Amino acid sequence: MGAKVNANFEALQANYLFAEVNRRVKEYQKAHPEADVIRMGIGDVTRPLAKSVVAAMVKASEEQGQAETFHGYGAEQGYEFLKDALRKYYAGFGVSLENDEIFISDGAKSDCGNILNIFSADNTVLVPDPVYPVYVDTNVMDGRNIVYMPSGEENGFLPMPDEKLEGDIIYLCSPNNPTGAVYNREQLTEWVDFANRHGSVILFDAAYECFVTGDLPHSIYEIPGAKTCAIEICSFSKKAGFTGTRCGYTVVPMDLVREETSLNAMWLRRQCTKFNGTAYIVQRGAEAVFTPEGEKETEENLEYYRGNAKVITDTLDRMGIFYTGGKNSPYIWFKCPKDMDSWEFFRELLEKAHVVGTPGAGFGACGQKFFRLTAFSTRENTIEAMRRLEEMFG
Amino acid sequence: MGAKVNANFEALQANYLFAEVNRRVKEYQKAHPEADVIRMGIGDVTRPLAKSVVAAMVKASEEQGQAETFHGYGAEQGYEFLKDALRKYYAGFGVSLENDEIFISDGAKSDCGNILNIFSADNTVLVPDPVYPVYVDTNVMDGRNIVYMPSGEENGFLPMPDEKLEGDIIYLCSPNNPTGAVYNREQLTEWVDFANRHGSVILFDAAYECFVTGDLPHSIYEIPGAKTCAIEICSFSKKAGFTGTRCGYTVVPMDLVREETSLNAMWLRRQCTKFNGTAYIVQRGAEAVFTPEGEKETEENLEYYRGNAKVITDTLDRMGIFYTGGKNSPYIWFKCPKDMDSWEFFRELLEKAHVVGTPGAGFGACGQKFFRLTAFSTRENTIEAMRRLEEMFG
Questions:
Q1: Measured between beta carbons, which residues in chain B are less than 8 angstroms from residue A52?
Q2: CB–CB of B200 and A2 under 8 A?
Q3: In this structure, are strands A257-258 and A261-262 parallel, antiparallel, or unpaired?
Q4: How far apart are CA A92 and CA A104, in angstroms?
Q5: What is the pTM of this model?
Q6: What are the 10-residue block averages of pLDDT along chain B, 394 residues in total?
Q7: Distance from first CA to last CA of chain A, Å, rounded?
């Protein structure tokens, strides 16, 4: 007798990647308080919320102060007004969804971890390498078997299906974190066909879809057949600067059935049991993103970040360094100069250029020689960081 | 090959209790659109947020609209300003906590489900019967062995430890949902001693502590020895009307260790991996609850609900019906008149008095003959509902 802990936690790496980066930066700053450190590591935004979003949240806060307009518990899966807005947003990509297929949450990271509740621990999970560490850690916590799909320069960091691979649950992230690489329609079609053929479920992380331009897919549901094999997780964090405001959503199609069980019904049950909905105020803010004014304002912010990304890719182009991302993604993933290892380059860049990025090795073995920068800094800092990079390593 | 679902979900009851209640009420209203139905079922509040809370959220929303005051990702475990306020709140009960022992979240229901991530599926769980269905359902989803502790009139719905009981994880809820019964210091001391003797972990749900008056404990940490055996989960939902604003917190003491593992470190790791913090705006609202003005305003709301509870208990006293709760709790748990079963009484009360409550059977076998009403309605509706109850069954 006595409580037993989840022994799978022992298999987790000791430090969460970004915590380790922060620890090293703090240590350096303590020793060198004069250094003007520019942070281009974590994927946090810097632009404030759009005026329409702020106005909607102010109004909603005031509603909460009056008995006539007060909102208590909402549906765990979110308000219809926000689902309506999202349904119309998806219609813009030619994707037709029902409101009951959309689940509003406090963010993509929560959904990404919690969605695993509906799956057995006895599933083999296929994850790209390099990859957002949360995919791996959340599965390690449940003790699932994890198989990595290596990627690199040879496939543009876009692993493709392989009949030799076993994967009951398949993580795809496009635009990818950390590589910024984006699957095109033909590539995603191969994945959807593979998953339907094998009964796999694709967990499609679309957190960066707002950076996609041209004919590249925003949603996996743009691919025929995806509704019988894919769950899509998305967020307002990057689209509308909600990193500190917290709102995301997950789409589980009605047609997605495994072992004669509706995954939509399972996720609804999970959320109704372990979640109590997202703040009314926040959902009103998210709704305002889709008003004409809100769309214009958020698009201005995205353009600003796209401009930062161009500053970075222009620099790398001049330096002749291989990279992915930056065109349809806020992430730029490049090969470390002078064949350095990524943590070695992290130290050099921090100590010599006072620029913080994220070492590729933190995202998996295939990231060993690569480095991630983000376009979420200010324009001034991005220009200055790139000036220093070119000066040191150009 | 092919994704396998979590087979434990099959063992869940088909409908979540409150969904079933809602379904039946909707059905009745559809057939009888003229009926003036008063809802005293779900534990949702009706009083608007305190003025200070609204003002804090309006200010925080506006901060999010300016680059200089914009807040992106915060720490997963919450802002220090809110932890400081909570630490001082606990000090008022004579409980000394460190900030790192407090984890802010989007609500007690989320924490109550997610905390199980840090425990092995191989634990026996001890739950009172009747009980908040979420304790049971979340453990069923993980396939844990559940043992019920029967309670009833004989022990005032306050089950006590018994050396014959095996419980690695023990749920206690005080003031209790659904019975409103509150453990006193001596009783909680017995539980703490039992847990420390057996290495059990108590999950103490304090969601209704704000209704406690007199010398009854608000927090399990008022009991010596609790920091080596208890996790406490609490919420702003009832205290400050945050049911739709979403903020809660969980305390995991540094001294709580099982199998040589710090549960505080495990919960921190869980939250850092599967959660991304609570909205900045909401945390600022929660902070304002603890300002002198905020305390006064929220206390006024609590007094209003206490007045409703008194209307209910006065009626039951007059009718000579056995009940628990209502004195230090927003819930009143009473024996169904005429020896009726609780779903039978639910139907009678709905059809004859047009009053909605929650059938005790929905909370467990021991609730079969009992019924729960809440004090969260308006004063007018509470008085009218009690008039009808007394008229029909008095």
A1: none
A2: yes
A3: antiparallel
A4: 19
A5: 0.96
A6: 93 80 94 95 91 98 98 96 98 98 98 98 97 94 97 96 92 97 98 97 98 96 98 97 98 98 97 97 98 98 97 98 97 97 97 96 96 96 97 90
A7: 63
pLDDT tens figures, A1-38: 699 999 999 999 776 788 889 899 999 999 999 999 99
Residues in chain B with CB shorter than 8 Å from the CB of A109 are: 274-276
CATH of domain A16-45+293-393: 3.90.1150.10
Inter-chain touch A266–B46, beta carbons under 8 Å? no
Say if the Cβ atoms of A117 and B66 lie within 8 Å.
no
What is the 3-state composition of chain B as percent helix, strand, coil, each rounded to the nearest 5?
Answer: 50, 15, 35
Contact B119 A4 (CB under 8 A): yes
Task: Give the position of tokens 């908040």.
Answer: B132
Contacts of B275 in chain A (CB under 8 A): 106-107, 109-110, 113
Q: Which residues of A touch B22 (CB under 8 A)?
A: none
Angle formed by the axes of helices B280-288 and A280-288, nearest 10°: 140
Of the partner residues B5, B47, B245, the one whose CB lies closest to the CB of residue A280: B245
Q: How many CA atoms lie within 13 A of B138 on its CB side?
A: 25
Judge: A244–B73 Cβ closer than 8 Å, yes or no. yes
Cα–Cα distance between B55 and B50 in angstroms, integer? 9
CATH topology of domain A51-289: Aspartate Aminotransferase; domain 2 (3.40.640)
- Residue of chain B whose alpha carbon sits nearest to that of A267: B9
Question: pLDDT tens digits, residue range A260-306?
Answer: 999 999 999 999 999 999 999 999 999 999 999 999 999 999 999 99
Place of tokens 């029967």: B150
Residues of chain B neighbouring A300 (CB-CB closer than 8 A): none
Interchain contact, A2 vs B168, CB within 8 Å: yes
Q: How far is B339 from chain A (nearest CA, A)?
A: 31
Hey, CA dihedral for B63, B69, B74, B77, is it positive or negative? negative
Spell out the alpha helix ranges (H) of chain B: 17-31, 51-63, 80-91, 108-114, 133-142, 185-198, 237-240, 263-274, 280-288, 292-319, 342-348, 379-393
* ipTM summary value: 0.96
Question: Which candidate from A44, A198, A258 shows the least CB-CB separation from B73?
Answer: A44
How far is residue A329's CA from residue A312's CA, in Å, rounded to a whole number? 12
Say which CATH architecture domain B68-290 belongs to: 3-Layer(aba) Sandwich (3.40)
Q: Which CATH architecture has domain B14-43+293-393?
A: Alpha-Beta Complex (3.90)
Contact B258 A65 (CB under 8 A): no
Cα–Cα distance list, B304 to B299, B301, B310 (Å): 9, 5, 10
Domains A16-45+293-393 and A51-289 share a fold: no
CB atoms A275 and B1 under 8 Å: no
Domain ranges of chain B: 14-43+293-393, 68-290
Residue of A nearest to B261 (CA): A5
Reported as type and span, the H/E element at residue B169 is strand B169-173
Q: Which residues, 6+ apart, have CB-to-CB distance to B155 below 8 Å?
A: none
Both tokens assigned to A55:
């106005």
C-alpha dist (Å) from residue A309 to A40, A216, A326, B260, B372: 11, 18, 5, 47, 58
How far, in Å, are A7, A221, A258, B11, B141 from residue B5 at the CA level?
22, 22, 7, 13, 11
Q: Assess contact for B135 and B156: CB atoms under 8 A.
A: no
Q: How far apart are CA B379 and CA B304, in angstroms?
A: 8
First to last CA, chain B: 63
